[in-house]
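F.,

This is the one I mentioned.
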């Protein structure tokens, strides 16, 4: 899934290669009419229907539905003549651990003159990545660290001058730009990577904190606290890190804004004043002179799932790759809905993207000549559990990151017909958006920015893990300006999907779906990949991207 948040109403290259791609707007690709014609609604719908069928059992990792899905992908890619992508195999094993946390029903916060008793699930939600059977948070000092951000490119360090080792850090959701609405502060209203809660937990661990609590606020979070409550005493999947242990906080989680107000009052401070100061440059972290205590019980299960990798080997530069991605997994079999249906088919999320991988592979195989660079088709696992399949690939790449030209991701394609617009997530990130803009214009369409950049959707699907290791990544979303019906109908359809189908058993292939719009989007994504596969161009990150320095750190050496 994209982890979309609806609006609140609802390692080395030659130095010369790095500069091969210029900043001028790219010309459109010329794949040939017969190649683009290989992308059809008929074959796409066949792939989609098969992947979203009840027989696939909702495609959940660790189930028989996983094996059925992987068998299907192997069979279909073989039929297209697309070779295995991992040293003679179509599979990359991904070891994982399932951690089931049972948190204490209360948390105690003590100050010099006041004691707060917090109620689990209603006031706070916590879990752990650790696999210890029992975790006790004995009275532990609490520290306020602003947004919990260390961002050198923005000259911002919320941990400056304070050692938080073995302490509980308390922080605000999103990033400073959201609160200031000032483009000179981070990216203003648009969320950056530093605003994501996943980053905040990771940075707290890097700082050695024992625990981390994010203050929930509906508007900057983009969702209500009930979404957070869905994490109360549930199981979560993570990569199996045995043998390469990294430090993990003993406790991660959230507290509500009313709890934060009481917490700061107990520390002799006004929460709104603290919030205002935290959004300004130069704000320093400080101890709250409070201590928190609670406990967690843990059960773990280790298992393995798989990424699927196929490739078309390049003719002249086979070591350079363009990687198309889409996650094959969904939610499996779960609670039955009002109709008695308990199979979460995940047609749009994300059989639609994996069907796109097959369709684009078919188009590349239909080319009269072999691509000069290798084109990879990567269907990743465990996206729904936290982007873990793509994270594992990024940590264990089959194709070196230094030789990976670009990532093109497909997650939740548009089933409502042709649109005039193409929605671009993460506008301003990389030169790949210049490529997709040129292709859209050549097709008589236009690029539209995402409606809610503050939701940070660019950081919520599998391309993000490629971006984190410096690989330019392109991600487009469903357009809403329908050729037949316009924006009003398009937005209505999209809102209906999130209200009635998203992460529900009802996410199936419906009779009223129109696949011609998906195919038009696939043509654009194919053209971008075709151009890159037949050239020596290296798209770059744009100035201001938080991933630019990562790429340059190894491309310039």
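My design for it:
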């Amino acid at each position: 899934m994209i982890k979309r948040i609806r609006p609140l109403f609802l390692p080395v290259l030659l130095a010369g290669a790095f500069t091969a791609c210029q900043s001028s707007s790219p010309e459109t690709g010329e794949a040939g009419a017969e190649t683009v014609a290989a992308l059809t609604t008929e074959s796409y719908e066949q792939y989609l229907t098969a992947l979203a069928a009840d027989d696939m059992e909702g495609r959940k990792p660790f189930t028989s539905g996983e094996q059925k899905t992987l068998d299907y992908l192997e069979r279909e890619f073989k039929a297209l003549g697309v070779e295995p992508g991992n040293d003679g195999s179509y599979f990359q094993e991904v070891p994982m651990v399932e951690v089931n946390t049972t948190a204490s029903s209360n948390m105690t916060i003590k100050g010099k003159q006041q004691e707060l008793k917090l109620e689990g699930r209603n006031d706070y939600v916590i879990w752990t990545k650790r696999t210890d059977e029992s975790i006790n948070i004995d009275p532990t000092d609490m520290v306020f660290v602003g947004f919990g951000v260390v961002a050198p490119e923005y000259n911002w360090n919320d941990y400056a001058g304070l050692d938080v080792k073995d302490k509980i850090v308390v922080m605000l959701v999103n990033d400073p730009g959201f609160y200031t609405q000032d483009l000179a502060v981070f990216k203003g209203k648009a969320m950056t990577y530093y605003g994501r809660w996943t980053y905040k937990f990771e940075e707290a661990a890097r700082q050695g904190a024992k625990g981390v609590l994010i203050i929930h606020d509906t508007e900057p979070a983009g969702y209500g606290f009930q979404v957070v409550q869905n994490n109360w005493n549930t199981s979560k999947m993570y990569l199996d890190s045995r043998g390469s242990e990294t430090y993990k906080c003993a406790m991660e989680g959230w507290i509500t804004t009313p709890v934060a107000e009481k917490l700061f009052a107990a520390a002799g401070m006004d929460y709104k004043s603290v919030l205002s100061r935290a959004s300004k440059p130069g704000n320093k972290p400080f101890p709250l002179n409070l201590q928190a205590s609670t406990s967690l019980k843990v059960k773990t299960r280790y298992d393995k799932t798989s990424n699927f990798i196929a490739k078309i080997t390049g003719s002249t530069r086979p070591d350079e790759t363009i990687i198309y991605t889409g996650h094959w997994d969904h939610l499996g079999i779960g609670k039955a809905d009002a109709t008695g249906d308990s199979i979460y088919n995940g047609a749009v999320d994300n059989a639609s993207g994996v069907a796109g991988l097959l369709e684009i592979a078919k188009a590349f195989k239909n080319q009269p000549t072999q691509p000069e660079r290798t084109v990879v088709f990567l269907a990743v696992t465990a996206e729904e559990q936290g982007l873990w399949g793509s994270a594992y690939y990024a940590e264990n790449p089959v194709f070196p990151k230094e030789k990976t030209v670009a990532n093109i991701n497909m997650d939740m394609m548009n089933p409502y017909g042709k649109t005039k617009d193409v929605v671009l997530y993460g506008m301003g990130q990389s030169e790949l958006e210049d490529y997709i803009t040129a292709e859209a214009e050549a097709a008589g369409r236009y690029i539209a920015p995402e409606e809610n950049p503050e939701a940070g959707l660019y950081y919520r699907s599998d391309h993000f893990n490629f971006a984190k290791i410096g690989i330019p990544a392109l991600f487009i979303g469903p357009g809403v300006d329908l050729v037949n019906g316009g924006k009003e109908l398009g937005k209505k359809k999209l809102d209906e999907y999130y209200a009635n189908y998203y992460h529900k058993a009802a996410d199936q292939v419906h009779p009223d779906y129109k696949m011609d719009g998906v195919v038009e989007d696939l043509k654009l994504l194919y053209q971008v990949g075709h151009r890159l596969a037949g050239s020596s161009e290296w798209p770059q990150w744009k100035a201001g991207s938080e991933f630019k320095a990562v790429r340059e750190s190894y491309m310039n050496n």
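Confidence is low (pLDDT under 50) at residues 2-24.

Talk soon.
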